[in-house]
Amino acid sequence: MVEALAVASGKGGTGKTTATLALGMALADRYDVTVIDADTGMANLLFHAGLADVETTLHDVLLTEDPVPVGAATYERFGMRVVPCGTSLAGFEAADPGRLRDVVAELADDADVLLLDSPAALDSKQAVLPVVLADRVIVVVQPTVPALSDGLKVQEYAAAYGTDLAGVLFNRVREDEPVERIASKASRYFEGPTLGHVPEDDATRAARQAGEPLLAHAPESPAARAFGQAAAGLDVRPGDGDRVADRFRSAVVPDRP
Ligand code: ADP
Ligand code: MG
Fold first, then answer.
1. Distance CA 62, CA 69 (A)
2. Which of 116, 175, 205 to mutate to test the pocket of ligand 1 (most atoms within 8 A of CB)?
3. Distance, CA of 119 to CA of 127 (rounded, Å)
């Protein structure tokens, strides 16, 4: 029984990786959680999860020739299974992102919740693959009008591939921001709930520097609490593992740009 959720946004830097690990840790209280760095071109989850020094990553699993089994790139950390991705250009070039379908299908066997830390979906056609594979997408946006518009494009892509919206997560919300106005706009345009408003919080940067997920580094920080509440409001809908795996294997891989 598994549900695959893509954590996505239109552009980079909105907090997808931070959110993936925070939601993953919070959900790990109730579910078997696997998080995977599906941002194979701009991987950075490894730095947030204390895995910067590991030898084997998703790149080795995605190799066109002699790939390693996904188990070799799966690490038990912070109560979750974590599949980090390498950061070298050579590793990216030797990898076949299309193989992500099989990897996700295999990981689905062992998890209740699969969180796919996704590339910025508007960067290239290929970048939308995790959104294509996922059952639902969590859109991480900053509470500004341009960011909302990017988020709506992600929702549009997702809908085009039959992926529903699990919810919208506002991140880096500053005290002076008109949250109410943005929230009412969001509820009008997004076809899913608002999962939460995560404040701008220095603890997030400190956690990243310490190589730890926010919920491990500063569990009582305002941002960590907000992520925890967002996870509590997420209605995980685990589907039939075999059927989900079949769907992943037969998903259409979007063309390169
Ligand atoms: P993405 O994966 O979308 O590119 P990251 O999760 O790597 O984004 O976050 C980008 C940067 O923003 C990081 O330096 C991170 O520490 C910072 N950041 C993320 N969320 C917050 C927040 N709520 N408050 C302050 N800084 C944040
Ligand atoms: Mg990221």
1. 9
2. 205
3. 6
pTM of the model: 0.95
Which atom of ligand 1 approaches the CA of 201 most closely? 24
d(CA 229, CA 73): 30
Confidence band (pLDDT; 50, 70, 90) for 176? Answer: confident
Distance between CA atoms of residues 226 and 169, nearest Å: 10
pLDDT at 179 over 80: no
What region, left, alpha or beta, does residue 162 occupy, with left being phi > 0 and alpha being psi -120 to 50 degrees? Answer: left
The number of the ligand 1 atom at minimal distance from the alpha carbon of 18 is 6
Q: Ligand 2 (ion): which residues have CB within 5 A? A: 16-17
- How far, in Å, is the centroid of ligand 1 from the Cα of 33? 21
Ligand 1 pocket, mutate which of 137, 204, 215, 229 (most atoms under 8 A from CB): 204
Give CA separation, 140 vs 36, 64, 68, 105, 218, in Å.
17, 32, 32, 24, 21
Q: Rounded CA gap, 62 and 35, in Å? A: 16
The DSSP code sequence of 68-83 is PPGGGG-EEETTEEEE
Question: 105 in helix, strand or coil?
Answer: helix
